[in-house]
Amino acid sequence: MTTSLLTFSLGEARFAVPADCVVATVRAVAIAALPHAPPMVEGVVNYRGVVVPVLDIRARFGLAANPLHTDQHMIVARAG
What we know:
Blueprint: E1 5-10, E2 13-18, E3 22-27, E4 41-47, E5 50-55, H1 57-60, E6 73-77
Antiparallel strand pairs: 1-2, 3-6, 4-5
């Protein structure tokens, strides 16, 4: 059985997400902040009419914060 993965880099670290969990990759857009959200939650974005939470996985893995740039991309994925 073969598993397809989407790989991405955060700084020097490399990660992978099962491709069947990935809905899309989209160019980074402005994130609307959520007051009182946990530190890992950057905020929300509108993805095709659906409000989607944006998580800072750098914080989850103890990596340094990185300001958002328009040349970056976001991974829209289903999580359980």
